């Protein structure tokens, strides 16, 4: 649920509903949070739930004090090393999954990604182009083709 609430697609939808500078509970209650059964959708040989859990674990378990969470997730290894490039890929993989789970196609996903000017400016300053958008769209294509293992290189 946390990954769903943090996805760019849900952020976009929430921004369409918010009329002021704060989010009221009546708006939160209207947000289209995905139902649990949606996570059983398969991409290749893996279901969306296992893909989301894997990426969330890599993004959150970066310190020993979060070990109980990692154990609850079924992970027995050490914390993941904080690596900005790996984190960028994990976020793009999650956003790609959520676009697909919401039934949003590549053209609409590209439009939605263009509505995040701060992300775009940060990427353009660091890389000279909108890397987050490129990665998300590339992972969407990979997942649609059933490839959940490849790492996209740009």
Describe the 3D structure.
- This protein is an all-alpha fold and 154 residues long.
- The chain has one domain (2-144).
- It has nine helices and two strands, in the order αααββαααααα.
- A two-stranded antiparallel sheet has the order 1-2.
- A hairpin with a 2-residue loop joins β1 and β2.
- The longest helix has 18 residues, at 84-101.
- The radius of gyration is 16 Å and the shape is globular.
Outline the secondary-structure elements:
Blueprint: H1 2-5, H2 8-17, H3 25-28, E1 42-43, E2 46-47, H4 48-60, H5 67-72, H6 84-101, H7 106-113, H8 117-127, H9 131-144
Helix pairs in contact: 4-6, 6-9, 7-9
- Quaternary: single chain
Order of helices and strands: HHHEEHHHHHH
β-strand number:
2
In whole angstroms, the N-to-C terminal distance is: 30 Å
Which labels suit this protein?
2 strands, 154 residues, two-stranded antiparallel ribbon, mainly alpha, 9 helices
Task: Please outline what is shown here.
The protein is about 55% helix and about 5% strand. It is built from 9 helices and 2 strands; from the N terminus they run αααββαααααα.
């Amino acid at each position: 649920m946390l990954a769903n609430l943090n996805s760019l697609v849900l952020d976009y939808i929430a921004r369409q509903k918010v009329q002021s500078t704060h989010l009221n509970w009546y708006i939160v209650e209207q947000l289209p949070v995905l139902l649990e059964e949606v996570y059983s959708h398969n991409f290749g040989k893996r279901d969306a739930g296992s893909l989301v859990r894997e990426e969330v674990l890599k993004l959150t378990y970066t310190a020993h004090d979060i070990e109980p969470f990692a154990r609850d997730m079924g992970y027995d290894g050490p914390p993941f090393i904080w690596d900005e490039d790996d984190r960028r890929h994990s976020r793009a993989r999650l956003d790609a999954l959520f676009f697909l789970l919401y039934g949003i196609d590549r053209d609409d996903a590209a439009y939605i990604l263009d509505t995040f000017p701060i992300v775009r400016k940060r990427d353009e300053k660091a890389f000279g182009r909108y890397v987050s958008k490129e990665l998300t769209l590339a992972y969407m294509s990979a997942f649609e083709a059933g490839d959940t293992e490849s790492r996209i290189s740009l």
